[in-house]
Amino acid sequence: MINWFKYSSPSSFYPLAGRLIPVFWMLAAILGAIGLYIGFFIAPTDAQQGEGYRIIFIHVPASWMSMFIYCVMAFWSLMGLTFNTRLSGMMTSALAPTGALFAFLSLWTGALWGKPMWGAWWVWDARLTSELILFFLYLGYMALHAAIDDPRRADRAGALLSLVGVVNVPIIYFSVKWWNTLHQGASVSLTRSPSMASTMLWGMLIMALAFWAYTIAVALMRARTIMLEREATSEWVKHLPDVKEIA
Amino acid sequence: MQTPFLAARNLRCVRGTQQLFENISLELNAGQWLYLQGENGAGKTSLLRILAGLALPAEGEVLWQNAPIAQQRSQYHQDLLYIGHHAGLKEDLTLTENLQALCRMDGVRSTDAAIRDALTRMGLAKRQHLPVRVLSAGQKRRGLLARTLLRPAKLWIMDEPFNALDVHAIADVQNLLKAHLTEGGMVVLTSHQTPDLGQDAPGFILNLSGAR
Amino acid sequence: MPLMAAYIAALQRDLLLVMRRKTEVLTALFFFVIVTTLLPLGIGPEPDLLRKIAPGAMWIAALLATLLGLQRLFAADHADGTLEQMVLSPEPLSVIVAGKITAHWLVCGLPLVFLAPVIGLQFDLSSDAIGILMLTLLVGTPLLSLIGAIGAALTLGARGSALLVSLLVLPLYIPTLIFGAGAVESYIAGLGATGHLSLLGALLILAAAFAPWATTAALRISLE
Fold first, then answer.
1. Domain residue ranges of chain A, discontinuous segments joined by +
2. pTM to 2 decimals?
3. Which terminal residue of chain A has fewer beta carbons within 10 Å of its beta carbon, N or C?
4. ipTM for the predicted complex
């Protein structure tokens, strides 16, 4: 049983993260290559949508990731508020920009897909609208975190916000779906395509894993930078090999 | 060996990226007082807020009657009176209204007569129905200190209670503190001048300037 | 019951403070009126169009007016040190916070319910539609105060807090907006408003249970 709490202090987590980052970059590159290959070369041409549909191999995994990252942020927030560990806050704020990026990517690829399909760059489809609101939630977290000067307080306030957010996301999604059906809006569900060929599913799954590896790599990198910034005056930072060289 | 009422173990305080102090420990028994000294920015207010439970220390814990204060908030708050830096009063309300609201939100039953008496004892009888806005800084301070007479609390944590007070008022407040200590209460305070609480009252001085 | 006493004390204190500064309150109400007046000016005065956008427009104006009032919920108490005293009260902070939120609603939310008929007439809504609108505002504005309080508590002492609160709280207001405006639209369309109203009511109960507690946690964090 790995003693997780051993790694909950920045000084022991920093070197561990350093070793893991290249591993995850490699995973991301390999999985990404496989996923894109499947998506763009192996998966069959869709009968109705032609070649243009292939963008779902980026769009759908990006949506999944934006949602998943928000939940992971909520998990770390809960850990941070309960156990008062410094690392949890750093991980949450390290994940946020990547989550926002995926939300934005999802919206953008959704628009790129939508234009040839529905003739409009944006439709008020329930899922797209929910994705947009999720993007706002990410922006809100980042804005709050940036607006509070004290880093510990910023982490804790952000943690509470992300917990409140995660509880609200199902409510928001439900209300947007309700709103959509009431107004008979664009009822074309982006994933409602009849029984997806299994290759398509595999492609999306592998892309999702690639995105996940990328997220971990980037978040760890960001977290390490945050650790260095915050603990600049502490002993363990002064003794780091990369830091010693300059002195 | 009696258990100290108030105890703090290995407190460490970090503000932003700066460490203010570490390894601060203290103990306070009934009838004792603690005077926090230190230059500006040494962390006196931060320490007071940590002791009051308003702020969390980066490390260490504060104990009241041998239990962490986080686990007994309601009880600790009942035994504690905190007088902070700020005025602590609403400018648009009168002293009487302020004290009434504070008492009721604290769950303390206090009659109008009791509030009137408290304000009279603090020399504010003529000012009790004026909006706090028009009072001087010293009068506002005395008004806030009137709370000590309305709420029986064992521990008084005070951040510069003598601020803006003239010589007479300072003497009055010192008498107030002495009486509290004689009854078995405790005081933790900061001040720009060393308070004179009499020869009998056992006091400690904690100087934060060297504790980085 | 001491809990009720603390709740009422907080409520009374905030109401008393408002009485001493009546103009601040009226500004929020006038804001509501002005925003709803801007819409026909911006969109055009055709009665059919106005009737269609009325529920949504009035609900959005209500959202914005409530947001404006959130500035006053904790910031003043934080500045003069009275918030610290409340946090250190032996009574549960969530009870005191609930009192303050109620005061906020009474000052910023409830008046909107009474202003609704006046504005509704400007938009040529039928009188029973106005009635439904008032009902949705009655149930929904406490929701806005409850959710908004969390945002106000989180942004205490943060830079640019006025705009920041809006960014944090508006996404969370969306379900209330959808069900509130939707109830009126649904009623006008002949489908009845009960579904929406019950959902709104359920959200209110959820928020009443959850929000004071979350606000309390946010206040403690902001005061650290």
1. 52-220
2. 0.90
3. N
4. 0.90
